[in-house]
Amino acid sequence: MTSIELRIRRLEESRAKTFQRALTDAERAVRIAHLQSGTPVHEAVMAILKRHEDARNQKPVEMPK
After folding, report:
1. 51 pLDDT band (50/70/90 cuts)?
2. Contacts of 62 (CB under 8 A, 6+ apart)
3. Torsion of the alpha carbons at 10, 12, 18 and 23, rounded to the nearest 10
4. Is 55 in contact with 35 (CB distance < 8 Å)?
């Protein structure tokens, strides 16, 4: 199985041929999820993405003054 680092490097190389700007973290995460779909680690990747989304949707905690 190809390592995540190699897949990300290949993703970045292919991106350079099609995009003039750098991918955002969200775009990169979606592409990695698509690469991983159908593999044994698909559920783990989706769990990481869901945790990230849940963390972004939480209300910020106000610090006491």
Report:
1. confident
2. none
3. 150
4. no
Q: pLDDT > 90: what percent of the chain?
A: 0
Residues 6+ apart with CB under 8 A from 12: 23
Give the C-alpha separation, 33 to 43, whole Å: 9
pTM, full prediction: 0.34
pLDDT at 60 over 60: yes
Sort residue 23 into left (φ over 0), alpha (ψ -120 to 50) or beta: beta
* Residue 8 CB neighbours (<10 A): 14
The b-or-e profile of 25-61 (16+ CB within 10 A means b, else e) is: eeeebebbeebbeeeeeeeebeeeeeeeeeeeeeeee
